[in-house]
Amino acid sequence: MSEDFFDENIGYEPEMNFEDKENVKVIIRNGSPKIVSEIEAIRQWIVKFCSTNKDTYPIYNGTGFGTRIKSLFGKKRIGYGYEEAEIERDFKEGLLLCPAISEVVDFKLTKNGKILNIFVEVQLYTGEALKVDIEKIYVIN
């Protein structure tokens, strides 16, 4: 794999602040978007994938990008295996849309009361492993 791999397939992208899941913003430094690349761009791609509702935004329709967390857990009861299995399937299939990811090695969905957290480990085509912890991916009302 060439050193240009990330530039050709992931590219550079503006860094996003995902702390407020309902109001994601581009980080601006000195009047310009702060740019991330390589591993940080892939990490951000994963967080963006996790935070995007499948088939909600026209730009992603039919692409498989995003998850069904809100639709599957959008009810008061949680914790019956079906919802968790479907979310895991969304991740194992959808994360492979990223041209830098060769395999989803590990996936964990944990619940703390009404808060859902995600841990995912992926194998990159470069041979590197990337682990991403996303806390408070969704809060069930």
Going across the major beta sheet, what is the strand order? 7-8-9
N-to-C order of helices and strands:
HEEEEEEHHHEEE
Total beta strands:
9
Report low-confidence residues grouped into runs of 5 or more.
1-8
What can you see in these coordinates?
The protein has 141 residues and is of the alpha+beta class. The protein has a domain at 5-101. The protein has four helices and nine strands; from the N terminus they run H-E-E-E-E-E-E-H-H-H-E-E-E. The protein has a three-stranded antiparallel β-sheet, with helices on one face. It starts with a helix and ends with a strand. The model is unreliable at 1-8 (pLDDT under 50).
Question: What is the strand and helix layout of this fold?
Answer:
Blueprint: H1 5-9, E1 13-14, E2 16-17, E3 25-26, E4 28-29, E5 32-33, E6 35-36, H2 38-51, H3 69-73, H4 81-94, E7 101-112, E8 115-124, E9 129-139
Antiparallel strand pairs: 1-6, 2-3, 4-5, 7-8, 8-9
